[in-house]
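Fill in residues.
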């Protein structure tokens, strides 16, 4: 079956005038990596190292219930406080090393900050903030197929509970522990399985990845964040030897929280209700990768939602921007 598929691909590319590029040759091109918003997208050759830095900013503004937008007044009809918007920023530091062509090890350290604006029934507006080191992720990428023009590898990782789940801030009701989306950790060990496919041709590249976040156990505040399941697919076009552009779709579904933090009042604000944290979202993104000097790659990707179906009232995502630098030697 594999040989039949490869023969069909070779016949197709021959008929269209497309030249197949080897995997090793492809990694030296700007589209040798996926768009910067995709993690764990590529493996390395024996002995290679890569360090990276990513900055991600996400804006959530306005509330949604299901697929419909709802007003602040509608939220305040059922709750004493309504969230208005939320800004999340993350600095992600990463390192990758390949002890063999088959296996690439990786680790990621995030630093996160979150800020949310609110309004109460009596018209008072206030802002809460939190920041700190998030959950550290370690893992590996194991290559299971490499046919020169395409490759497949397994993603396997663990998220460590290094992020804070006890963040507090001042509110009109005093200093209190902040609701679930304002905490920057899960409080649990989480499994990060996945699988990634990449294909290459002379004009550019394409790929797809399926991934999940599976929570293990219950944290010290008596709850477990919902599991996440997602998939993404992209296509990239080279513009010369140094620049490539990309288009990408990302689908993700998140389950509601199991259990509840006993210090939070779910009737006060929807962000404190564990049954209002799930939903589905389909995003579209455009990006650019640029090679600079020897081994340096700079990239940026802008992402917006196409469709959102949320267990609401829940803040809806408006946009996200990811920018990064990668250096390989």
């Amino acid at each position: 079956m594999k040989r039949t598929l490869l023969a069909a691909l070779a016949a197709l590319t021959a008929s269209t005038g497309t030249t197949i590029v080897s995997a090793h040759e492809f990694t030296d091109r700007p589209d040798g990596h996926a768009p910067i918003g995709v993690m764990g997208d590529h493996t390395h050759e024996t002995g290679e190292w890569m360090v990276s830095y990513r900055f991600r900013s996400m804006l959530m503004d306005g509330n949604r219930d299901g697929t419909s937008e709802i007003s602040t007044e509608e939220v305040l009809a059922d709750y004493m406080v309504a969230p208005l918007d939320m800004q999340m920023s993350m600095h992600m530091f990463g390192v990758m090393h390949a002890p063999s062509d088959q296996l690439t090890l990786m680790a990621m350290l995030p630093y996160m900050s979150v800020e949310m604006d609110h309004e109460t029934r009596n018209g008072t507006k206030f802002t809460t903030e939190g920041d700190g080191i998030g959950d550290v992720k370690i893992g590996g990428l194991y290559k299971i197929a490499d046919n020169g023009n395409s490759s497949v590898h397994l993603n396997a990782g663990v998220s460590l509970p290094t992020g804070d789940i006890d963040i507090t801030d001042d509110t009109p009701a005093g200093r209190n522990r902040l609701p679930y989306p304002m905490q920057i950790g899960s409080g649990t060990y989480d499994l990060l399985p996945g699988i990634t496919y990449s294909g290459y041709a002379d004009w550019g590249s394409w790929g797809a990845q399926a991934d999940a976040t599976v929570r293990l156990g219950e944290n010290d505040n008596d709850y477990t964040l919902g599991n996440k399941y997602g998939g993404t697919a992209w296509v990239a076009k080279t513009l010369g030897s140094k620049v490539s552009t990309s288009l990408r779709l990302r689908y993700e579904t998140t389950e509601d929280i199991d259990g509840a933090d006993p210090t939070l009042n779910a009737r006060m604000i929807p962000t404190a209700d564990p049954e209002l944290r799930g939903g589905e979202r389909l995003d579209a993104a455009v990006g650019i990768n640029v090679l600079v000097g020897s081994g340096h790659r700079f990239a940026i990707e802008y992402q917006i939602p196409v469709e959102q179906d949320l267990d609401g009232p829940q803040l809806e995502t408006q946009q996200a921007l990811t920018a990064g630098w990668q250096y390989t030697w």
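Residues 1-22 have pLDDT under 50 and may be disordered.
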